[in-house]
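Hi L.,

As promised, CAP-Gly domain-containing protein:
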Amino acid sequence: MASEFKPTPMDISVIISTPASVEAEPGFATERRITPTWSVIQLKSKLETMTGVPPGSQRLRLKTPGRTDQWIEGNNTIIGDLGLAKGCEIEVHDTRPQALRPNFNDLSSVEKYVLPDSKYESLSNSVLAWKKNQKLGRFDPNAQSPEELRRNQAEKDVAEVKKRDIAVSKRAIILPSSPPHVRRGTVRFVGPAPTIPFPGIKKTAAEDEANSDTGPLPIWVGIELDEPMGKNDGTIGGRRYFACPNNSGIFVKPEKVEVGDFPPLELDDNLEDGNMEEM
């Protein structure tokens, strides 16, 4: 007598999900195909690769449209016997205490790998190697050194301050400025600000403290704004250059300043922060 033919059961597409934790870690949901003849323990071993939860720590909840949610019990239970159908969802709960679960979102305890400068400089396919081959940036034999660039910037700033008649106590607006995007205030500081770094020049904390720069430094204009639309209180890099309420101070380059008869803004004026060179 010929044995009875049993067709291979068709896989069923269901949603696999995890709930969001109390620590606000987001859950996830993905659609996967499940073979109805799998046992619960077989299913759990597959789910571990998706959720990271070991089979022994999984508790599964079956959500079927139109029916009450049910917990799946018994590792030897056959999934197909639970009435699994397209549109169902299996929610994977982690029974481990929160402290014992690996947190893949918190990178604070993960040691960051930093490629040594000597190793990076020896690479032939890096951006640095490309710049060397193209003789760009500091590899350009005609390029100015950072110190020369800083000196040129300082000379340009001095000329701008004189041309624009920028001085302490004068009223000013920050450019570009057109209604309703207008920020105005009073000039409180004009001069070098050593604690604002210049590109390409690194200074130690001791050098900052001793103010050991040689030659002229770029000029910055410190302004106390009429409204708290600034970035500081007149302090930057740990050094105070002028005093004003918090978020009312701002440092800008001289070419971004226009002095004149600018009365204080009314409280109902609409202000919006622009995208400018400022600190």
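DSSP finds five helices and twelve strands in the chain.

Thanks again for sending the construct details.

K.
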